[in-house]
Amino acid sequence: MKDLFVISDIHGQISMLKELLVHWDPKKEILVIAGDMVDRGEDPYETVNVIHHLKKLYPRNVIVLKGNHEELFLRWLDSPVKNANLYPRAGGVPTVDSFLKRLKKTKDISSDELMAKAIKKEFSRTISFLRNLPLYFERGKYVVVHAGVHLSDKENWKDSQDDMLWIRDDFYGENVPNNTDKIFIFGHTPTHDIYEGLSTDIWVSSCQTKIGIDGGAFYGGTLNGLKIDLKNRTYKSIQIKHPTLKEFKVD
Ligand SMILES: [Mn+2]
Q: Ligand 1 centre from 67 Cα, in Å?
């Protein structure tokens, strides 16, 4: 059985992703990308492109999950007028720009509607890849999911798809017991928020069944890679530090 190598919340930081991928061994590890490839960052298009390419090269050894930012991008593509205010506030401008600049023909694109239409037409395979991403990956006792799940009982954690994309402290809060028999690896909330600004390291709940890995790569933090040895149930983390900001800033 292959081990897992989990990365989350790249948010367009393609240079950090490439640095981290050097540590992935496709012969020994399944690469799991836990969502939020797009929005903000250096180059969201290229981030999706590299990951999509890896998925095609290693269809069984690369698992890509949907995050809320893939969902927001798809919503904008389908209803650009309705999402014209919301999507830029979520960091969508670098995503749209990074796709637009790869269009072969850029004339006559003067409205959000035309931009969305052109992107959907020219990058139909990429967009279809994003649309069809699963929300979680389960391997034995481990579940990788973008934001988290509803933990109240053993059987129903798969029921709330909305929670898998959006949930925060109703999942990772120390006062929320994990009544499932799974160990969850999640991103979505930068660990510096959970650590209250003290660290960007991987976070492990006191019950040791919730493991947060979002290092806040865009916010001057870290891109964390988490290796899980499934047989021995041991973890190893790799951190790629932000190339330009040394200090992690807290708002
Ligand atoms: Mn997210």
A: 5
Cα(49) to ligand 1 centroid in Å equals: 19
How far is 95 from 97, CA to CA, in rounded Å?
Answer: 5
pTM over 0.85: yes
| Alpha helices (H) in the chain, listed in sequence order | 14-21, 44-57, 68-78, 86-89, 92-100, 112-122, 124-131, 161-166, 169-172, 191-194
Q: How far is the CA of 107 from the centre of ligand 1 (A)?
A: 33
What CATH topology corresponds to 3-241? Purple Acid Phosphatase; chain A, domain 2 (3.60.21)
Rounded to the nearest angstrom, the distance between the alpha carbon of 214 and the centre of ligand 1 is: 9
Q: Rounded to an integer, what is the distance from CA 76 to the centroid of its chain? A: 18
Q: CA 94, 74, 105: angle at the middle one, nearest 5?
A: 60
Q: What is the distance in A from the centroid of ligand 1 to the CA of 148? A: 10
How many A from CA of 104 to the centre of ligand 1? 31
Which residue has 């004339």 as its token pair?
107
pLDDT digits (tens, 9 = 90+) for 58-103: 999 999 999 999 999 999 999 999 999 999 999 999 999 999 999 9
Spans of all domains in the chain: 3-241
Q: 224: helix, coil or strand?
A: strand
Distance 223 CA to ligand 1 centre (A): 14
